[in-house]
Amino acid sequence: MDQDSARHLLIEFEQAVLDALASNFGEEECERLKIMSDNVNTTISHLFEQGKLSQPTIHLGVSIGERIEHLRVVLNEHRAMMDELQRSTTEEIYSILGKESLKPGEKKMAAERRDGGLNATQMRDWFLKNMGYPFPSRSDKVKILKSTNKGPVKNDTLRYNQVVLWFINTRRRSGWTKFLRRYAQGDKTKMLELVWALETSVGGTHASRCWSSGLGTVSTSKVRDGKKERKITRMTIKEFMPEVKDYELEKMYMEWKKVVERIRFGVKERVGDWIEEVIASADMTRHA
């Protein structure tokens, strides 16, 4: 396949993804996008291996990736706002009318209007406040459970095993586990130090960042490393990873921002991971 065909394939895929992001697409559409994504990935990889991937094609891939990312972020923020509006409105209605005052038929209708999805607000908040080590203890899970179920709407009550599974799935689907393996070599203590260093370098507050390491503002902290307890010290990311080049740190932080975004908005596995590969190829070309 030549460059023109590859660029046409990229543009066609972009349009399909944008159409899907702008609607609530189902499994059939998702499967179609995966097939298209595999086709694009195969084509781009083939051209790259042959040394035929031109700069214009790479730049087109980068531009498409950036446009899709921007739209996805906007749509996710919009959906999050709508979900919050729906939740607060429902709670306000229940507080005014009183759940017990509703007739049986009205109760059923009200329940049917509720979002059938899992209420992950408290779990998501806890995760974002403990990004360095998002492994809640049993007591943490019980607190999350009680806090979630104490609201005025008791339909679809959250269960303990759902909390356990949500954290397992979210660590994996958000990319947190992948980040752990890639940048901390699977060492959870090192991951905690890494996230703490990122937090120190970014600065600001939890409200401005929308995430925290979980260690607070102390200068040192004691953490359990296996059976031993050791002291770790707050430092910047450059101090923590002095051998890593600036553009590599920037790339790492961009990956981290995507992890945070997926947790904030409950984003599942991304469609078209080939975009990241194209962007990575462009970065390698720029810094070669």
From TrEMBL:
<dbReference type="InterPro" id="IPR008422">
    <property type="entry name" value="KN_HD"/>
</dbReference>
<dbReference type="Pfam" id="PF05920">
    <property type="entry name" value="Homeobox_KN"/>
</dbReference>
<dbReference type="InterPro" id="IPR001356">
    <property type="entry name" value="HD"/>
</dbReference>
<dbReference type="InterPro" id="IPR009057">
    <property type="entry name" value="Homeodomain-like_sf"/>
</dbReference>
<feature type="domain" description="KN homeodomain">
    <location>
        <begin position="126"/>
        <end position="173"/>
    </location>
</feature>
<protein>
    <recommendedName>
        <fullName>KN homeodomain domain-containing protein</fullName>
    </recommendedName>
</protein>
<comment type="similarity">
    <text>Belongs to the TALE/M-ATYP homeobox family.</text>
</comment>
<keyword id="KW-0371">Homeobox</keyword>
<keyword id="KW-0539">Nucleus</keyword>
<keyword id="KW-0238">DNA-binding</keyword>
<dbReference type="GO" id="GO:0006355">
    <property type="term" value="P:regulation of DNA-templated transcription"/>
</dbReference>
<dbReference type="GO" id="GO:0003677">
    <property type="term" value="F:DNA binding"/>
</dbReference>
